[in-house]
Design a protein that fits this description.
Elements: H1 16-40, H2 47-69, H3 72-97, H4 102-121, H5 126-147, H6 149-152, H7 160-179, H8 186-189
Length: 190
C-alpha cells in the first residue's frame, strides 16, 4: 500500500481519513496565510475582500475534492464559485442576521461541496451526498466555533502555528465527513 499523494497526476492514494487530515492541513496553511495578509495589509472587512477570501479558501477545498475524485480541473473551477456564492450569501444576510448569517452561508458551502463531490465521483446517491454536506457543515461549524476566539484574543495567540492548528481543527471534521468511505451497495460492503 502506498501513501503517496500524486497532486497533479491521478487520484490520491491516501486513505480517506489521512487524506482528510492532509486536506485540512493544506487548507489551514491557506487560511493562515490569509489571516496574515488581512493583518499585515490591514485589509478592511468589506464584502469584496470577504468574497475574494472565500473564493481562495474554496479553491483549496475544491482542489482537495478534485484530487480525491481524480478530477482536479472542474473542482478547481467550481471551488471559487462555491466560495463566492457562500460569501455572498453571508454578506446578503448579514444586514438582517449579523454574524448569525455565518450559519446559512457555512451550511451552503459544505452542502455545495458535497454536491460537487457527488457530481465528480458519483459514488453514492445525491441524498447521501447531501447528508454528508449537512454533517460536514455541522461538525466543522462546531469545531470552528470552538476555536473562533483566536481572532478575538489575538494577543494571547499571536503565533501562526496556533492559527494553522486552529484551522486544521476547524476543517478536519468537514473533510472527514466528506471523505469517509461509506459503502454504497452490497458489493462495496463486502
Amino acid at each position: 500500500m502506498s501513501f503517496a499523494v500524486e497532486p497533479w497526476l491521478g487520484r490520491s492514494r491516501l486513505g480517506p481519513m489521512l487524506f482528510a487530515l492532509a486536506s485540512a492541513l493544506g487548507l489551514a496553511a491557506v487560511m493562515t496565510a490569509g489571516d496574515w495578509l488581512w493583518a499585515a495589509l490591514r485589509i478592511q472587512h468589506r464584502a469584496a475582500a470577504g468574497v475574494a477570501h472565500g473564493a481562495v479558501m474554496c479553491l483549496a477545498i475544491g482542489i482537495a475534492i478534485g484530487i480525491r475524485a481524480g478530477r482536479r480541473v472542474p473542482a478547481a473551477i467550481a471551488g471559487p464559485i462555491i466560495g463566492a456564492a457562500a460569501a455572498a450569501t453571508f454578506y446578503l444576510l448579514a444586514p438582517s442576521l449579523g454574524w448569525g448569517a455565518m450559519f446559512p452561508a457555512w451550511m451552503l458551502l459544505w452542502i455545495l461541496f458535497a454536491a460537487l463531490q457527488w457530481l465528480l465521483a458519483r459514488g453514492e446517491g445525491i441524498g447521501a451526498a447531501l447528508k454528508r454536506g449537512v454533517l460536514a457543515a455541522l461538525l466543522s461549524g462546531f469545531a470552528f466555533y470552538l476555536i473562533s476566539d483566536i481572532w478575538i484574543h489575538e494577543a494571547a495567540h499571536p503565533s501562526l502555528l496556533v492559527h494553522v492548528a486552529a484551522w486544521t481543527f476547524a476543517f478536519l471534521p468537514g473533510f472527514a465527513a466528506l471523505f469517509a468511505r461509506v459503502p454504497t451497495d452490497r458489493a462495496d460492503a463486502e
